[in-house]
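INTERNAL AUDIT FORM
Audit reference: QA-55
Scope: verify that the stored structure record matches its stored sequence.
Auditor: D.O.
Record contents follow.
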Amino acid sequence: MTNRKPNSAYPIKPLAVNSTITIATRQGELDGQSQPLVNARDLHAFLDVGRDFSNWIKSRIRDYQFLENADYIEFSPKLAKTSIFGGRPKMEYHISLDMAKELAMVERNDKGRLARRYFIDVEKRAVAKAQQALTSQQSWLIKDLQAQLLAAKPLWKAIKRYKQLGLNHVEIGKLVDRDQSTIRDHVRKMERYGILPPPKNLAKLQRMALILQSPKTQPAHTETTGSPCTVTDWERNNLPPILWGQGYHAGNLPKGMGGGAK
């Protein structure tokens, strides 16, 4: 929109609590975009301008340099007829919300301020609706991509079904003739694509991944021992991180991992 003539400020008065708006908006095409439009004749009637509509709208367009097909569209309704005294049929103007707000503001009265606030609210609701539609479309596209991936990867489809049944990686591997590590790799990829939900212990797994990526001489975490300690290669290769640094070795494993009394 082009720059307008500067408008002097006018004092703000409190609006009546029971003030109501009766200006309808309709979706239309303007400036190559679908957007809410206002019938300028409806706005003119609400504002109680005191001038005939035709002269009012033409002078506002001229004085404030509104652009046709960018700020408004001018047309003659198909069913419009000339009066019995002859003359041209009446012209209608559908205007953008920005133009409607400015026309309301320059009237410098309570109804103008009320109409401007109303159009701001209409604009906010239109933006929110457009964002919701975009989010819905994105969600549909993601689901469609996931469906295509499952159709192209029968193994993923089987893994998803067995995961929903509550089977672990070892059990799934036996059913699809794959080893545990292969199933785990596929599950991680499926989680990244949103085909499977992330694991409930994701935060713990992420902490373990950071520890695994650390240098071998880096002190282990202190959740169990209470103090940092050095992790041996054997511990790193054979024990879960929570047991690192506690002096376990092949002949001294905790119960449940092959240790304890025989």
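Auditor finding: record pair retrieved intact. The CA atoms of residues 12 and 110 lie 8 Å apart.
Action required: none
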